[in-house]
Write a structure and sequence with these properties.
The chain is an alpha+beta fold and 233 residues long. It has helices at 20-39, 74-80, 85-91, 128-143, 159-162, 167-172, 190-200, 203-209, and strands at residues 7-15, 44-54, 59-65, 94-109, 115-123, 149-157, 181-187, 212-226. It has a single domain, classed as Alpha-Beta Plaits. The two termini are 29 Å apart.
């Protein structure tokens, strides 16, 4: 299993900034405060950040957790309701935010890749089983054998753990989008993961398996850190 736990928080968003100074402030905040803060929450195991190279939203953050219940814990919600002044300033810059707590259904491979491709799926109720079974039983075993691919994951959204009317959500303003199902494929480079999806998990291929909405974006890794790293900060 490539992911460190059975829960994962995915946050995808665009960013509204006026100039390079605001972008620099955002990047510094994430590296020096926000990521370490999140990794200090009990049950948070690893955090990663990405920037889009093809598609949108512009940025992604993935937090691997012991379980999806970690994302509904009192310790985590305490942070969500007590943002710092610096956090308040930067969270107000988020736009088109998708924030979803997931249960890890399947995780193939090991380690993390420098590139990642994400597919957001919303299968119709009567096709969920056949789509997810085909992804894990047919597509993933082929994908994981592709040169340059290091991991593939199937994630299902958990509405109960996702829902949180918090100070941070109020700062972002517009209600967050929530995902039903996500496929995450990791590799040496986003060009490799993009090509792999076009070969095995294209919209046309998926349409032959079952009815579902389909959105996709391709990312390069910015930063990855595990919870033990913050002990040395």
């Amino acid at each position: 299993m490539s992911l460190l736990g059975t829960g994962l928080l995915g946050i995808w968003h665009d960013l509204e900034i006026k100039d390079n100074a605001e972008l620099s402030d955002f990047q510094l905040w994430y590296t020096q405060q926000h990521l370490p803060e999140r990794l200090g929450v009990p049950g948070f195991l690893r955090g990663r950040r990405y920037h889009a190279v093809a598609g949108k939203p512009q940025y992604a953050a993935l937090y691997e957790t012991e379980s999806v219940e970690t994302l509904a814990s009192a310790s985590y919600h305490k942070q969500l309701n007590n943002p710092t002044t610096w956090s308040t300033q930067n969270l107000a810059r988020f736009r088109n935010t998708n924030r979803t707590a997931f249960t890890v259904e399947q995780s193939f491979g090991y380690g993390i890749g420098a590139g990642a491709s994400v597919i957001w799926l919303s299968p119709e109720t009567n096709t969920i089983g056949q789509i997810t079974s085909w992804i894990t039983g047919t597509a993933f075993p082929q994908i994981i054998q592709t040169p340059g691919i290091v991991a593939a994951h199937l994630l299902s959204g958990d509405p109960k753990s996702t829902h949180a009317d918090t100070t941070e959500s109020a700062i972002r303003g517009t209600p967050d989008k929530v995902s039903d199902c996500v496929v995450l494929v990791e590799g040496h480079d986003p060009s490799i993961t993009k090509q792999t999806l076009s070969q095995y998990l294209s919209p046309k291929t998926m349409a032959t398996i079952g009815k579902s909405s389909y959105e996709c974006c391709h990312y390069k890794l910015i930063h990855s850190s595990v919870s033990a790293d913050i002990l040395n900060l």
